[in-house]
Structure formats: structure tokens, C-alpha cells
Amino acid sequence: MKKPLILILILLLAYSQSTFSSAPAKTSKVQNVMIAPAELAKMMESAKETVYYDIRPYIEYSIFHAPKSINMPMRYLNNRIDEVKKYNQIVIIANDEKEAALAAQMIRAKYPDKRVRILSGGVDSWVKSGLPIQNELPHGC
């Protein structure tokens, strides 16, 4: 009695694996637009109506950060999401692209018309490119 039951369970498991694993992955309608560190540095010199959110935890931001970046830790982003509505473009600076993509997704969920860009290679790519960093915190932090 156990053998037929085990066989049925194995067949059901195999069928469900093949059925669900072949389903196409759900993709976002809007692709993340990556920005290279050098391009971001140039943008920071002239872009208006753009905000640069460093979503790393405050302690990491306080050690060093890109000039003009504002600390918006990932854990607070959802509560402060309405702050982005006054900007046309948002650039996400993070430790890695995966974390930045999650932040971009959160922003686009509420503001699909906003242009959200991600620093390619994360904050390490900024440092490795030899671009300026700051460790001074904005007044009031």
C-alpha cells in the first residue's frame, strides 16, 4: 500500500515541478536604467530636479558617500516614499545592484512616471573609479 502512495506522490511532485518551472518569469514593464560612475559624476554637476539617494544604512553613509547624495536608508524608504514626487529623476546608490533594484521597484510602484536610475556596480564602483567621496555629514544629521 505504501509503494503506490509514494509513487503517486513522486509523480505529483514531478508534474508540479515541470508545470510551474516552465512558466515564464514575470518581468517588469520598466527596465532599470543603469548609470556608470563617471556618467553619474557628470550628471551631478548639472542635472536639475534629480535626487541622489544613498540607501545604505546611516552608519555606512557616515563613513563615506558620493557628493550630493542624500541618505535614505532602505528601511525608511517606504515611509518616506512621497519625498520623491518633487523630483523628475531619482538615482539610487547602494551597496549592490540587487538592493538598488528593490528600491527602484518600490519607487516605481508608487510613481511609475519617475525616471529611476541605478549606480552600476554599487558604491564600490564609485570608489574604484577614483571619484570624490565625502565623509562630512549634512548640517543637522
Automatic annotation (TrEMBL):
SUPFAM superfamilies assigned to the protein according to its UniProt record, in alphabetical order: Rhodanese/Cell cycle control phosphatase
Signal peptide bounds: 1-23
Transmembrane segments: none
Name listed for the protein in its UniProt record: Rhodanese-related sulfurtransferase
GO MF terms, alphabetically ordered: transferase activity
Keywords: Signal, Transferase
Keyword set includes Protein transport: no
Domain Rhodanese, first and last residues per copy: 46-135
Pfam families in alphabetical order: Rhodanese
InterPro entries in the cross-refs: Rhodanese-like_dom, Rhodanese-like_dom_sf
